[in-house]
Amino acid sequence: MAKTQARKKVAHTKESKVMDITIPRNDGIPFDAQLIGNLNINRSAVERRAATIATRRSVKKEWQAAWLLKAISFIDLTTLSGDDTPGNVTRLCAKALSPIRPDILNALGMGKEKITTGAVCVYHNLIGHAKSSLGKSKMPIAAVSTGFPAGQIPLKEKLKQIELSVKAGAEEIDIVISRALVLNSDWKALYKEVKACREACGEAHMKTILATGEIPTYTKVAKASWVSMMAGSDFIKTSTGKEPVNATLPVSLVMIRTIREYHELTGYKVGFKPAGGIRTAKQALAWMILIKEELGNAWLDNHLFRFGASSLLGDIERQLEHHVTGRYSASFRHPMG
C-alpha cells in the first residue's frame, strides 16, 4: 500500500530549478510508520563496508586531477564563525567564484572552463553581503536556519527564521532537526516539524541536518533520514560541523542507502551533504567513490551532492598544484579555502 501511494505521489511531482538545472523535486510522501517500523541497521556490517572505501579504491595521476576539479563543484564554501564579518564573506565569495589560481588551471588545460564551487553558505545576517559580493553570478546562497546549530528554539521561531532568510535572498536553507524527537523516537512529530519547515522554504531548497554525532545509533540515523525525506527534504545532511563528531563514512553509508531505498520506493532523488571534518582532497575522493558505488553517477552532480566545508578547497588546490609542478606548496599560498 505504501509503495502504491508513493508512486501516485510521484505522478504529481513539481519541478524546481537549481542552478539552471530543472529536476523533479522531492515533494515528500504521507507519513507511514510501517516504512521504518522494522528498520534495523547492522553496525558491524556498515563499518566493515565503509572501511573498504579509502583502502581498496584509489584514483591517481590525471584521473585524480579530474576528480578533484569535479569535487570543487560539490563544495558549499562555508563560513559559520562567531567572528564572521562582511569582509570575510566578500573574500569567501571571491574564492567561490574563482576557486583555483589561473596559472594552475592553465597548466591543466582548463583555463577557459568556468569552474566554481557549488554554493556559499553563511549566517542569515550576512546573506545581503553575500548577494552583493556575488553580483550577477547565479551561484546559490545557502543560509543556516532554525536555531542553528542546536535547534533549541520553538518551531514558530524556526519557521520565521526560514521565511526571513528566503526573503533576504537565500536559495537554499540548511535546517537542523530537534534531536530530542529522534532520541525519543517521536517520528510523527519529527515528520510534522520537517514538513512545516519545507513549506516555509517555498521555492528555496531545503537541506535537513540530522546532527548524527548526537544520534546514538545507526538505526536512529536511518529512521531520521527516512522521516526527513518523507517530509519533503531536498537534501539530507550529516552534521552542523559544530558537534564533537561530524561526517564519517559509516554514517554517510547509512544515510546514502536510505536515499537509494527512498528513490526505489518513490522515484524521488534526494541529495546528500556530508559536512564537518572533511578537510583533505583524499577525504573528498573517498566520499565521491562512496557516492559513485552506492548511488551511481547520477548523484555525482552538485544538485544532488555537496560537501559542507571551509578548509577542503585549500587542500584540493594544493594537490592540483602538486600535480602540475611535482612540488607541494605551503598552505598560505591557497587562502580562503
Q: What is this structure's SSE topology?
A:
Layout: H1 2-10, E1 15-18, E2 21-24, H2 34-37, H3 43-56, H4 61-72, E3 75-78, H5 86-97, H6 102-107, E4 119-122, H7 127-134, E5 141-144, H8 155-168, E6 172-176, H9 179-183, H10 187-201, E7 205-209, H11 218-230, E8 235-237, H12 249-266, E9 271-273, H13 281-294, E10 307-309, H14 312-325
Parallel strand pairs: 3-4, 3-10, 4-5, 5-6, 6-7, 7-8, 8-9
Antiparallel strand pairs: 1-2
Helix pairs in contact: 3-12, 4-13, 4-14, 5-7, 8-10, 10-11, 11-12, 12-13
How would you characterize this protein structure?
The chain has 337 residues and is an alpha/beta fold. It has one domain (2-10, 22-325): TIM Barrel, CATH 3.20.20. Helices cover 47% and strands 12% of the residues. The strands form two sheets. It has an eight-stranded parallel beta sheet, with helices on one face. The chain has a two-stranded antiparallel ribbon with strand order 1-2. α7 (127-134) links the parallel β4 and β5. α4 (61-72) runs antiparallel to α14 (312-325) and α12 (249-266) runs parallel beside α13 (281-294). The radius of gyration is 19 Å and the shape is globular. The model is unreliable at 1-20 (pLDDT under 50).
